[in-house]
């Protein structure tokens, strides 16, 4: 199983990138199979469904035009993200992962077929705004700025985590002073980057050493940077960091931050502003929560620590 899954991951990278370095391949092959304790990727290829919700269907705006009739077209991450959010199944074409599972629950509740479209992080905003996608389910945090352009129906709490090499001397990172002078890997344009930059601004005003943010192109490069000592820590979605820590035993958690720092925040299905579909999506999510299918999805991807008991529309987020 380990050999097959590693081959699939390399094929994924070769499919989406013109070149791949020997060191990146070596980093992948040095990792154990993509399965963490309690996470069975083969079993997780089997879809989880939830019943159609009459309430959700009734809230679809009259004459609403989906990208494809009778189908919910959703942009989500595969390459450029990391398990458990999105990856390819053993056939190297079927998208699995927690985000694909959530998308299926939403579509089921709305009585629609599901079409998932792997997309780059940079592509989903224009894709949703232009109507190329009906929705994006991409570990997207609700923020004040994003709410001016999109509508949100929440489905998970947002927690960010700092992870370091297992042998690192760093014991904690949970406040601004802790990042002073450190080399931290973070995704460009993400809310975690916004948190780091805000903390760095505070530090520099106090005369503390500046943060050195590092932007890498893929997970293999991030792994290499941490393990080689070129970076001190990674900062990103905690469920991803926890998954990788369980997976390899080579990293450990040294601090968490609410995704909406300094307030709590939520991850949400993202839709075009004002088109009315958000009400139906919220009802569909609440139906899946009530049916138990929602918790089954989170449980099988190790995300239940971030569960919610009901979906909200456009709640306070980062920047509010």
From TrEMBL:
Pfam families in the record: SBP_bac_3 (PF00497)
CDD domains in UniProt: PBP2_MidA_like
Signal peptide per UniProt: 1-35
Solute-binding protein family 3/N-terminal domain: residues covered: 71-305
Keyword Signal appears in the UniProt entry: yes
Keyword ATP-binding recorded: no
Keyword field: Signal
Family: Belongs to the bacterial solute-binding protein 3 family.
Protein known as: ABC transporter, substrate-binding protein, family 3
